[in-house]
Amino acid sequence: MGHKAYGIDFGSNTIKVYRKGQGIVLTEKNIVSTVGKDKRPVAVGEDAYEMYERAPASIHVAFPIKRGIISDMDDMVALWNFAGKKLAGHRRFKGGDFYLSVPADITDVEKKAYERIITDSECKPKKVMLIPKPVADAYGLGLDVEQSSGILIANLGADTVEISVLSRGGIVVSKILPYGGNDYDDKIRNYVRKKYNFLIGKRTAEFVKTSLISAVPDDRAVKVVGRDVVKGLPGEITLSSAEINPLINDRFDDIAVAIRAVIERTPPEISHEIKQRGVFVTGASSWINGIDDVIMRETGIGVNVSKDAQKTVASGLGFLTEHSKLAAKYAIKFK
Fold it and tell me: Are 306 and 314 in contact (CB under 8 A)?
């Protein structure tokens, strides 16, 4: 049997795991349900997500990564132990090399915490490497990271937007914006409560977002169920893209302006190649219709949207598991 190696993308909403020689073998919600003062896990992943906003007050249900930073280490270790059992089946999940993506624009302490998820778990790793997320993203896109002198990637995630410029294998500029798809859900929920005196949950808000959100004019509509605040009874309302899109459109403009600002901070020789290649957009919110037009209008540069935008980081980590010497070049080293 070949040497075991795994590439892990710990996203704010979802964990994706690539196993060397097999591809992406696990996609799981990054959420944990616990009880008691000792925070004993009772459900993890998809099972915990089913309990979100439905569990009694005695059960705490939470996403343990916020804005790209680990907010609850115990929950993350419990989640990884659960993932390890799923990966191992009936065998013990032990040993192997682990390649983890981490945001480029967070502190060394915050990056080091990602390593602890693995080292504090039951899997007893042989080696843990932390890889800058933009590098993994670029390899997942199939780009020639070593030879390219100008790559700009905007990863539109669930909790953050990470904008990075790479050149000859190194990160030249990187910037994180503290908002993402989850914030769009919150805006929708707040709007519905204020406008209609109607309560909807996060899962329903997410459905509204994926059904209606567009960066360009749209005429879609959906019916949603929830609770009438005045009557205190279940009900149903219809929401349209014409009323939902204005809640979010300012954020799209902010993203485009931030991308332009990053380009303006980039040396001319590098920005010239970026203009030739175009901006690459990845991440959980890259599906939004018209986001490429907004970015192009602000920057004057073409935009490339990946068909597998939510998997590029995990795929890039997978590529590095297959090329361990190359991965060692990018591994983050702490002073």
Answer: no
Model confidence pLDDT, tens digit, residues 215-257: 988 899 999 999 999 999 999 999 999 999 999 999 999 999 9
**The pair of three-digit structure tokens given for residue 213, joined into one six-digit string:** 């959100």
Residue 182: how many other CB atoms lie within 10 Å:
23
- For the whole model, what pTM was predicted? 0.93
pLDDT at 2 over 60: no
Token duo for residue 88: 């191992």
| DSSP sequence for 233-291 | SEEEEEEEHHHHHHHHHHHHHHHHHHHHHHHHTS-HHHHHHHHHH-EEEESTTTTSBTH
Measured between alpha carbons, how far is 253 from 246 in angstroms, rounded to an integer?
A: 11
Query: Residue 125 phi/psi, 5° resolution?
Result: -70, 155
Q: Specify whether the CB–CB gap between 102 and 133 falls below 8 A.
A: yes
Distances (CA, A) of 236 to 193, 212, 239, 293: 13, 17, 10, 34
pLDDT band, residue 307 (cuts 50/70/90) = confident
Quote the CA–CA distance of 221 and 200 in Å, as a whole number: 16
**Domains of the chain, each with CATH number or no CATH:** 5-136+312-330 (3.30.420.40), 138-179+248-305 (3.30.420.40), 181-247 (3.90.640.10)
| Tokens found for residue 48 | 């915990």
Closest alpha carbon to 198 in 226, 223, 176: 226
DSSP state of 320: H
Q: What is the pLDDT of residues 70-115, one digit of tens each?
A: 999 999 999 999 888 888 886 778 889 999 999 999 999 999 999 9
CA distances from 294 to 135, 201, 241, 290 (A): 25, 29, 17, 7
The phi and psi torsions of 121 (rounded to 5 degrees) equal -85, -175
